[in-house]
Amino acid sequence: MTYVAVALLLGLVILVHELGHFLAAKAVGLPVVRFSLGLGPVLWSRTWGGTRCCLSAVPFGGYVLLALAGEKDYLAAPLWRRIAFSLAGPVANLLFALCCYAAVYAVSPGEHSLAGYCVKPLAWTLGTAQAMLAAIPRLFGHAQELSSLVGIVAEGGRFVGASASRLLMLGGYISVSLAVFNLLPLPPLDGGKIVCDILVRCRAGLARYYVPVSACGWLALIALMLYATIQDVCRYLA
């Protein structure tokens, strides 16, 4: 059951991320045609306010599809709206991490204070983000240390055990990790989209490279995920 709890937690963190994008799009006036939790074939859907909300077959993923004809329509939207849309997912994850760490502080023994509910969770969140940033350069030289969703669930289950506070700590860690990873300036991640949007704004001729660069980024990301997954499966079956 512990591994199921970790898998559900991972799905919740992804939902928070995509919900951040969705709410930001609505707030800044970008039309959303589809909001999906999961990837692949649609298992269930319902339309609310012009947006088709879907539950798809592959649970660990999701997306917010804007009701725009293509990259030209997307790039025609004001830059600040596009940046707000891209930033909202990572920001939502950081806020979720703060909530997780605040809950850990609430159930921990010792003195509690109103200031503590703000300061300690913030310190834990910043510390986790700093550790993630420090670990990223190491991954380029030690690819064997990458973990896929399989590894996250397996190691997360071992870490959590039967402890609710550890499950909350893991939720904060995964959420911060997702935020930091998505803010890397690499297409098609949120940080990469922001960099590309700014570059296109500075030099309009770069717009023709927007789709090819994003496609190459997706291929590289899928290849990296497959490599990490195969590596984790071989490790745990050995």
Structure description:
- The chain contains eight helices and two strands.
- It has one domain (69-237).
- The chain has a two-stranded antiparallel sheet with strand order 1-2.
- Helix content is 68%, strand content 14%.
- A hairpin with a 2-residue loop joins strand 1 and strand 2 (51-66).
- It is α+β, with helices and mostly antiparallel strands.
- The model has no long low-confidence stretch (mean pLDDT 86).
Total domain count = 1
Distance between the termini: 23 Å
Strand content: 5-15%
Instruction: For the largest sheet, list the strands in their spatial order.
Output: 1-2
Total DSSP helices: 8
Mean pLDDT: 86
Which blocks of ≥5 consecutive residues have pLDDT under 50?
A: none
Number of strands: 2
The run of helices and strands is: HEEHHHHHHH
**Gyration radius, to the nearest Å?**
19 Å
Helix/strand layout:
Blueprint: H1 2-28, E1 32-48, E2 51-66, H2 71-76, H3 79-107, H4 114-141, H5 149-160, H6 164-182, H7 190-202, H8 210-237
Antiparallel strand pairs: 1-2
Give a brief rundown of this model.
With 238 residues, the chain is an alpha+beta fold. Helix content is 68%, strand content 14%.
